[in-house]
Each structure stands twice: as structure tokens, then as C-alpha cells.
């Protein structure tokens, strides 16, 4: 093992241990860090495309934490749901000190539920001011580094789930493919075609 690879592995292990320590803290506080029931009522794209009707209105969204910028008693973050990304804004005086500590325990990759109100920042960014934060799933492994992402082709194929998380253009391709296949299947079903599998035509029967 090269020295660079060894150092990378050690850094990864350290990050994973820190995340597991946070997991233990959640559990010690009586918070179940996986599979919390949460009913989503709104989506990022709808909020951004129809800001006039969402302005200062309550919303309930959920998504994966993609970026985080903390400024002491406030923090900005970006979360990504199936429709796209949206900025969220945490304030200690809104959430309360006991709840704000969980904002500082968030890691990139965590899936969270957000309840809050929509507004626009001075820079014109559509944002959700968070009134309530719910941890839906704690990410125990860090995502690939932001700027380089997941570039190795074979690794992308073997870990397609990671590829879909960090490469939005790949996710968009799969969304389009899913819709196309669904329409083709719908049409053929309407023509009384029968769908069958032909294992001999597969590379691996």
C-alpha cells in the first residue's frame, strides 16, 4: 500500500469514527438516527419555481445534506431531494440551544427533514428558515470529495448508488431513462404485448 493511499485510508477511518461517535450521542439522547417517520409535503424545485406562492409560507421538505457553512449561532446548508437542491438556514435563537447542538452534529451525506418558512436572502437565494430539524438517516461514511467526485469509471459502475448521489447529471439521465422505459411499457401493454425475460441474451444469465 502506497503512503498516500495509507494516509487517505487513515483519514477515512478517523472521519468514520467521528460520525459513529455522533451516532452514539444521538442514541444517548434518545434520538433514533435511522428511519424516523417523516411526511414530506413540499419539494425543492416547486418552492424555487413558484416562490411567489411560497413566500413566507410554511413548508416541509426532506433531503440529503450536500454542503454546510456554519457561522457560530447561524448556519447555511444545501439539501438535495429528488427534484433538486435548496438552501436552508438555521438560527440558534429560533431552534433553541438544546436543538441547535444537533445542527452542529450534522455531516455531509446525512438525510434530514426540515420544517420552516420560505424567504429570499439579500443575494436573492430562495431559502428555508428552519423551525424544526429531524434527523432521518445518519451517514456513517463520508461522500467522495466535492470537487473531484467519483471519477473512476469502474468504481462508478460498482457503486452506482454513490454515483447517483454525487453526480446530478447521472441521476438526471436515470430519471429520463426511467420515464422513457415506463412510457414504452405503457404503450406496449396497451397493445396487449407480453413482457418476457430472455436470459440467453444477457451477458450473465
> Termini separation (Å)?
36 Å
User: Whole-number average pLDDT?
Assistant: 86
Parts with pLDDT < 50 across at least 5 consecutive residues: none
Radius of gyration: 21 Å
Number of domains: 2
At the first level of CATH, the class of the largest domain is Mainly Beta
What is the overall shape?
A: globular
Question: Would you tell me which CATH topology of the largest domain applies?
Answer: OB fold (Dihydrolipoamide Acetyltransferase, E2P)
SSE topology string:
HHHEEEHHEEHHH
The CATH level-2 architecture of the largest domain is identified as: Beta Barrel
Class from helix and strand fractions: alpha+beta
What can you see in these coordinates?
The protein is an alpha+beta fold and about 200 residues long. It has two domains: about 5-135, Beta Barrel (OB fold (Dihydrolipoamide Acetyltransferase, E2P)), CATH 2.40.50.140; about 155-195, no CATH class. It is built from eight helices and five strands. It has helices at about 5-30, 45-50, 50-55, 90-95, 95-105, 155-160, 160-165, 170-190; strands at about 60-70, 75-80, 85-90, 110-120, 125-135. Strands 1-2-3-5-4 form a five-stranded mixed β-barrel. A hairpin with a 2-residue loop joins strand 1 and strand 2 (about 75-80). Helix 7 packs across helix 8. It starts with a helix and ends in a 15-residue tail after the last helix.
SSE diagram, text form:
Blueprint: H1 3-28, H2 44-49, H3 51-54, E1 58-71, E2 74-81, E3 84-91, H4 92-95, H5 97-103, E4 111-120, E5 126-137, H6 153-158, H7 160-166, H8 168-190
Parallel strand pairs: 3-5
Antiparallel strand pairs: 1-2, 1-4, 2-3, 4-5
Helix pairs in contact: 7-8
Amino acid at each position: 500500500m502506497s503512503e498516500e493511499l495509507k494516509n487517505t485510508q487513515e483519514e477515512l477511518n478517523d472521519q468514520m469514527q467521528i460520525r459513529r461517535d455522533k451516532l452514539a450521542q444521538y442514541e444517548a439522547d434518545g434520538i433514533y438516527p435511522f428511519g424516523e417517520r417523516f411526511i414530506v409535503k413540499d419539494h425543492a424545485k416547486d418552492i424555487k419555481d413558484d416562490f411567489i406562492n411560497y413566500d413566507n409560507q410554511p413548508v416541509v421538505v426532506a433531503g440529503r445534506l450536500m454542503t454546510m457553512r456554519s457561522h457560530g449561532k447561524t448556519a447555511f446548508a444545501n439539501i438535495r431531494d429528488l427534484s433538486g437542491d435548496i438552501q436552508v438556514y438555521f438560527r440558534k435563537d429560533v431552534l433553541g440551544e438544546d436543538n441547535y447542538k444537533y445542527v452542529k452534529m450534522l455531516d455531509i451525506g446525512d438525510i434530514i427533514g426540515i420544517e420552516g418558512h420560505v424567504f429570499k436572502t439579500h443575494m436573492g437565494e430562495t431559502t428555508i428558515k428552519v423551525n424544526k430539524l429531524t434527523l432521518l438517516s445518519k451517514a456513517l461514511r463520508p461522500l467522495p470529495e466535492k470537487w473531484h467526485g467519483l471519477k473512476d469509471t469502474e468504481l462508478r459502475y460498482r457503486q452506482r448508488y454513490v454515483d447517483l448521489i454525487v453526480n446530478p447529471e447521472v441521476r438526471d439521465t436515470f430519471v429520463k431513462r426511467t420515464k422513457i422505459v415506463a412510457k414504452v411499457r405503457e404503450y406496449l401493454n396497451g397493445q396487449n404485448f407480453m413482457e418476457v425475460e430472455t436470459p440467453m441474451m444477457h451477458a450473465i444469465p
